[in-house]
C-alpha cells in the first residue's frame, strides 16, 4: 500500500500541502487521524483557502457536519461525539461519503466499518521533533483498514 510522509514545521506550510493534495488526490477524500490539537481543523482551513470555500471553516464538533461551497461542494465531518458506528449510518453520512468526491472526516475511528469499502486517503497527524509529521495512505476498496 503506498504511503507518503511530510514534515510540517509551521502552520503556514499546511497551505502548500493542501495545494499539492487538491491537485494530486482524486477523489479528495481524507480521513484525518490525530489527537486533540493535532491540526485536523487547521488542515481543513488550509484547504478552504486553497479551494475557495465561500464560508470560513470551523470545526463541526457540535453539529457533526458542515458543507462548504466553492469550486465544488465540500463536506467536513467531526465524529468525535459519536459513540457507535450505527450512528454514522443513522445520520446519513455513509451515502454522502459514497457519492461526494470531496470530504474530510475528523475523528473517523467510529466510521471505520463503513470506510473500508469507500476509496479514500487516511492522513495521520503525529507529533515529531521537527514539528508535525503527516502520513498519507490510500485506503478502502482493497480490504484495507485505516489502522
Outline the structure in words.
This protein has 147 residues and is α/β, with parallel strands linked by helices. It has a single domain (3-139), classed as P-loop containing nucleotide triphosphate hydrolases (Rossmann fold, 3-Layer(aba) Sandwich), CATH 3.40.50. It contains 5 helices and 7 strands, in the order βαβαββααβαββ. Strands 1-7-6-2-5-4-3 form a 7-stranded mixed sheet, with helices on one face. Strand 6 and strand 7 form a beta hairpin. Helix 1 (13-24) crosses helix 2 (40-51). The longest helix has 12 residues, at 13-24. The protein is globular, with a radius of gyration of 14 Å.
Note the beta-strand portion.
Answer: 25-35%
How many DSSP-defined strands?
A: 7
Low-confidence stretches: 142-147
Q: Briefly note the structural class of the backbone.
A: alpha/beta
Entry keywords:
147 residues, alpha/beta, Rossmann fold, seven-stranded mixed β-sheet, 30% strand, globular
Write the topology of this structure:
Blueprint (H helix, E strand, L loop, with lengths): L2 E6 L4 H12 L3 E6 L6 H12 L13 E4 L5 E5 L6 H6 L2 H7 L2 E5 L5 H4 L4 E9 L2 E9 L8
Parallel strand pairs: 2-5, 2-6, 4-5
Antiparallel strand pairs: 1-7, 3-4, 6-7
Helix pairs in contact: 1-2
